[in-house]
Design a protein that fits this description.
By secondary structure, this protein is mainly alpha-helical. It has two domains: 40 residues; 39 residues, no CATH class. The chain has three helices and two strands; from the N terminus they run ααββα. It has a two-stranded antiparallel ribbon. A hairpin with a 4-residue loop joins strand 1 and strand 2. The N and C termini lie far apart (106 Å).
Length: 105
């Protein structure tokens, strides 16, 4: 009589439970590591100002708060934003015609 292979159910259950437990612990460890690295990186950038961003914001503020030529050849100038808002309010929301249309157009 040939010997029938026997399935060891207890071993399969133990190996399965150990595998699930190991994956759970590994998942929790990876999540904790990710959160630690994320907090460390955020703290690193909070303590160091972003000078490129600050310079860009300063440049934008200077452009919207000063008189300047946009295109001097075409006689296009920019005025400070506060004055532009007041001018629009005074005109009732109508934009001024900056260039009259040429005849024939």
């Amino acid at each position: 009589m040939a010997m029938q292979p026997q399935v060891n159910i207890r071993l399969i259950v133990v190996v399965g439970l150990v595998t699930v437990l190991a994956l759970l612990v590994l998942g929790i460890a990876v999540d904790a590591w990710f959160r630690y690295e994320q907090r460390r990186e955020i703290a690193q950038y909070e303590n160091r100002p972003n000078t490129a961003l600050e310079n860009a914001l300063l440049d934008q503020r200077m452009k919207i708060n000063s008189y300047r030529w946009v295109d001097q050849r075409a006689q296009v100038a920019a005025i400070p934003i506060d004055e532009a808002i007041k001018a629009i309010i005074r005109s009732g929301g109508k934009l001024p015609a900056t260039r009259p249309q040429e005849p024939g157009r």
